[in-house]
Amino acid sequence: VRNWKTRATVIVMIATVALVGGLVAAYLIPGETGASSALGPPEAPVVVGDTTEGGQGVSDLTLTEEEKATAMHIIESDAHVGGILQNLDWHVQLIGPLTQGQQKIGAAVLITFDGAVWMEDTFSPYYPSGYSYAAKLWVGSMHILVDLRDGRIVGFSPTGMGRAPITSPITSSITSEERAAAAAISLSTPLAKALGENVEAYLNAVYYTDEYPQGIAFFNIRSDQGEAFVAIDIDKMVVAEQYTSSVESLER
Amino acid sequence: MRPILRKVGKARFLGPAVIVAVALILISNLAYAYTTSNLKVLQIQEDRFYNYDFLDEDAVDVFEDFEWGSDGTSLDVEPPHGVDWTVTIWIDWLGTASAEIDTEQHHQGTKSAKFYIDYGNSVFASYPDYRPSYRGFWLKTEGYAKPTTITGDGQHDIFVRVNGATLQYFYNWGWQSTSCSLSPNQWHKIEFKDIDWGSGKYSIYVDDNYVQRVDMCPDMGYNGITQYYSCEYTGSFWIDDILEYPPSSNGVACAATMVFYNNAWVNKVKNMYYGMADWATWDYAPLNNGNGWIWDGDRGTKTHYPFNNPVYLPEPIDAYVLMHLRVYAPNPPDYMENSAWGKYVIGTTHCDEFPEYPSVPWQTWHGYHEVAEEFFADWAIDDGYTVFEDWTSFYNEEDFRVDVQPDGYICIWENDGDATAVYVP
User: Fold this and answer.
1) Separation CA A5–CA A180 (nearest Å)
2) I need a labelling partner for B351 at 20 to 30 A (CA). Which of A163, A230, B6, B114 fits?
3) What tens digit of pLDDT does each residue of B135-175 get?
4) Whole-prediction pTM value?
C-alpha cells in the first residue's frame, strides 16, 4: 500500500509541475500568442458576415477614365480656375468621385503645385453652400470639385496654408509698412524668442473675415530650432493669441 | 522527501511520470493555443457617407413641427404623421387628458402640440427613438403643468422635467435641480447636446445657454423610446419643433485604422499622443468584438486648443494640417478584451484643415485617414513602441473620394484598408 501511495504522490507532483510549467511555457512562447508578446504581430481578426456591408459597397461610385478626362477638361477650360492654373506648374495628386450621400455627382481632384504658389482669391469649398472666404496665401495644393451632372466646377479651395518658400517674394496683401510692422511684432513674441537666434518671419497667409475685415496675417516664424505661427490683427496691429501657436515637428 | 526522491530515481516510476508530464505539457499548450485563436470577430461600422450636416434634412433623424394636423387632432393618428406618436391617457375618475395639435400656440409655423390634464390624470405621448446624439425642442408651460420628457436606450435614460420654474433631471433615484429657471407662458428652447450613450452623460442647454453636464439615470424601461408626458397637476404645456440628430447614420465618420492592444485603454492611448481633446467634436462608433454591437463616443486626442501645433505634411496634402485620433471602447471599462489582443481599443485617424478656429476660415474639410494613420504610427515608433504598420485588413479600403454636404463641409475618404497595430506594454 505504501508503494502505491508513494507512486501516486510522485505522479501527482510531477503532473503538477508539468502542468504549471507547461502553462508558463505556453504563455511565454513568443509569436503565437499575440497579446502576450511584443515580438510578433497580433492575430488578425476573423471577420464574419459580408465585409462589403456597411459602406464597402462604393465600387459603383468610382470614376471611369472618361469621367476623369471630362472633369479635367472642365477644370482646364474653366475661365476662372483654368485661367489661374494655366500659368502654374501643377499635377493631379489624387482624383476620385465626388459624392453627396450615396449619390455620385461628379469628380473631386487634389492638385499639387510644383512648389507653393502665392494666391489671392475668394475661395469656396463648395459653391452651392454659399460659403466663401477671401484670402491671400501660399498654397501647396487645392481641392477642386466638379459636378459632372451639369459640367461645372462647384468647389475651388486650398487644402490649407502651404509653406512659405524662404526666398520667394511676397507680392501684395498688406502695405509694405504694415507688413514690416506686423513682422516685427511677430518676432517680438515669446514664441518667436523661444526659437533662438536667426529667427525669420515669413508672411504665410492673410485671411479677410467679418471679424478681421482688414485682414489677419499669419507669419511663419522659423529658425533652425523650430517653427511657429504668429497671427497679427492688421487693423489693431496686435497679436491674435487664439491663432498663435508652435508648429509640431515631424522629427521627434 | 527522501523516500520520494529515492522512488523517483527508479526507472519503473520515472517512465510513466515523464509520459504524463509530456502529455500535460501538450494539453496545456493546445488549450492555450485554442483560447488565443478564439478571436471571433471584429467589426467597426463606418459611415462612409458623412452626414453630420445639420442642414441636410436627410441627416436629421427626427423633425416634428406639428404642422400636419388641424386643431384638436390627436397626435396618435393613423396613418402616422410627423413622427409615429403613440398616446396613452390615464383618467383617474373624472376630467380629461389630451395630447393634440393646437393652433393657438406655436413656436414656428402655425401649430404646436398641446398636452393638457386635470384632476390628477395623465397623458403620455411617445415615438420610437434610439440613441440620438442631439435632442432639441421648444417648450411653453402654463398653470401647474409639470412637463416631463424621457429618452432611453435600454441602459440609460435622459430624464428631464420642469417643476414649477425649475429645470430638473432625474439621477440617483431622485430629481436633481439645475440652476436654470424657465419663465411660464414663454417659449424656451430645451436641448440635450453631446449625448454620450456610452458613459451615460449629456449636456443640458436652455435658450442656447449651457446649463449643466449631467448623468443619465439607469434604465427605467424606456428602450428605444422618447416620451413627453404630463401628470399630477392641472395645466397645459406645449412642445414644438422637435429636432434630433443620429449619432451617425451607420457608424463612425472616419476610417478605423489602428488597434492599440495588449494593455491599452482609451485615456492611456490618448496620453501617448496629445492627451485629451475635451473641445473636439464627439463621434460615435459601433463596434462588434464577437459579443454583439457596442457603442462608444469619443472626442479623441488632437493638437491643442484652439489649433496649436499644426503639422506640415508634404505630399499628398502639402499644407499645414491638424492631426486627430479618436479612440473607441465601451465605457466602462474603456477597453475591450480578448485572449488574443489582451486589453485593446480601436482608433480612427484623420487630418483636419488648419486653421480651424471659426472665421479664419471655418474648417471646411477633414479626412485623409491613411495619411493620419501613418503619422500616428510613426509617432508611436519614434516613442519606442512596437508597431506593426498595415498589419491586417480591416476591410475598409477606400480610394480617394470626397463626400460633400449641402453646407459645403467635405469629408475626404482615403484609406488603404490595412490597419496598424500598436503594442501597448
Assistant:
1) 98
2) A230
3) 899 999 998 889 999 999 888 899 999 998 999 999 988 99
4) 0.64
